[in-house]
Design brief:
Blueprint (H helix, E strand, L loop, with lengths): L8 H8 L11 H18 L10 H9 L8 H13 L7 E2 L16 E6 L2 E7 L4 H4 L7 E5 L2 E2 H5 L12 H13 L8 E5 L2 E5 L17 E6 L2 E6 L8 H11 L5 E5 L9 H8 L7 E7 L1 H7 L4 E6 L10 E5 L6 H11 L4 E4 L8 E6 L6 E10 L13 E2 L4 E2 L2 E2 H12 L4
Length: 419
């Protein structure tokens, strides 16, 4: 499976603003060639058109008509951002951005919301970031973003080429609006228990623009139970050695909690299999893949099962995996694997629900890339990965100072002693 971490904002911005990067001009024919390559690649390879209301042929017409007015790299980046937004897919994106581009969801956001009975309600808040720090909590209704009423704030973020605006498109537009862009501090106007509040999650600093972790993981012992939290490092091969040494130090515990709630940027299967392999004693399938592009091209369906092999000194005590809205991509893959192998109890909220496995492509003239889901991913019994909900489901894992999911995991391990 080819999953790639979503690109960090500072790195992307640095690449975009290199001396000469914005001065390099392409000809109209080169912009047309790049746009045609982009459109055809998505048309031939995107794996989830059947779930979308996107009229991709209309995308070519609407955005292709804008090409004669494109005279700079920045303008072309914006055109492709808008075209790709027609898929309303969190797992599709460019490998570059502009200062006023929207932050990526979920990597670059700290609040998750959705429409419930017509109201835009907060359903999750990212632990340790600005939204939580200023008091945003699940259940609050979002009234306005930077003084723009929600309904109006969503309009620029809804595709122009949709046959109809479905709930998934509205929810993504809502979350993009809440994420904000890379340069504008956010002001969120919310209502809780009939009381109106104004919150400023990017003050005194825009924490989402400078996300750093002291270590790739952190661990501790909670009585006789071990706890390991992965800090968004599932794409870093150095995590494997750090995880192995940490697990060895916790080998004498009676049970283990693996916290994947801060893994929004994806990762790679090498790291994932290294982690999973420490908890099994026999080789097993852990994930199913399907390749829609091959079926569309030739009418022949192709699917595969991916295996994970045991590694030395397996941890065989009970395991609980914690997940949440910022468990994304590779974190979701690890979760459904443990669930399918019946090796862990999964505790938490819904995850990021990112679609499939991502492949990367590069424009021939502009040279920056774009990523789209090209493979469908399933639990080995055929459940789409994006539809997975933990058996031990909770509505919200953070309420004030209480970590509901962690408390439930501890209770489970202390009371049952079963995976």
């Amino acid at each position: 499976m080819r999953l790639f971490p979503r690109v960090g904002y500072l790195l992307v911005l640095g690449l975009l603003l290199r001396p000469g990067a914005l001065r390099a001009q392409l000809t109209p024919a080169q912009y047309q060639q790049d746009f045609d390559y982009f459109w055809n690649t998505v048309n031939d390879n995107y794996a989830y058109f059947d779930k979308k209301q996107t009229d991709w042929a209309l995308v070519r017409q609407v955005y292709g008509a804008q090409l004669p007015g494109i005279g700079s790299r920045a303008q072309f980046v914006r055109l492709l951002e808008n075209a790709l937004n027609e898929l309303y897919d969190n797992h599709a994106g460019l490998s570059t951005n502009l200062p006023d581009s929207r932050r990526l969801v979920p990597t670059g956001t700290d609040v998750w919301a959705r429409f419930e009975q017509g109201k835009p309600l907060v359903v999750a808040v990212r632990a340790g970031f600005g939204a939580e720090r200023v008091g945003l909590r699940p259940g609050m209704e979002v009234l306005a973003i930077n003084d723009v009423p929600v309904a109006q704030a969503l309009l620029p973020l809804l595709g122009r080429c949709l046959k109809t605006i479905d709930p998934a498109a509205r929810d993504l537009a809502l979350n993009l609006a809440l994420a904000g862009d890379h340069r504008t501090p956010r002001k969120l106007t919310v209502r809780a228990q009939s009381r109106r509040q104004e919150l400023f999650p990017d003050q005194p600093t825009a924490q989402l623009e400078h996300i750093q972790y002291a270590r790739p993981l952190e661990s501790r012992q909670l009585g006789t139970i071990g706890y390991i939290k992965i800090n968004n490092s599932l794409g870093d091969n150095r995590l494997m050695a750090a995880f192995d040494s940490t697990l060895e130090a916790l080998a004498g515990t009676t049970g283990l909690i693996l916290d994947l709630r801060e893994t929004p940027s994806g990762g790679n299967t090498t790291v994932a299999r290294a982690i999973m392999g420490r908890f099994i004693t026999a080789e097993q399938p852990y994930q199913r893949h399907e390749f829609p592009a091959e079926e569309r091209a030739f009418g022949i369906r192709r699917s595969t099962l991916e295996l994970v092999s045991p590694r030395p000194r397996p941890y065989t005590r009970p395991l609980v995996v914690l997940v949440g809205r910022w468990t994304s991509s590779m974190g979701e893959g690890i979760t459904i694997a443990f669930d399918a192998m019946q090796r862990a109890t999964i505790v938490g909220t819904e995850m990021a629900r990112l679609n499939g496995a991502v492949s990367s492509f590069r424009l021939p003239n502009s040279t920056f890339g774009f990523n789209i889901p090209t493979e469908r991913l399933y639990r080995i019994d055929g459940l789409p990965r994006e539809n997975f909900v933990p058996a031990e489901h909770i509505m919200s894992d953070v309420k004030g100072t209480t970590d509901t999911a962690l408390e439930k995991a501890l209770h489970h391990l202390q009371s049952t002693g079963k995976p």
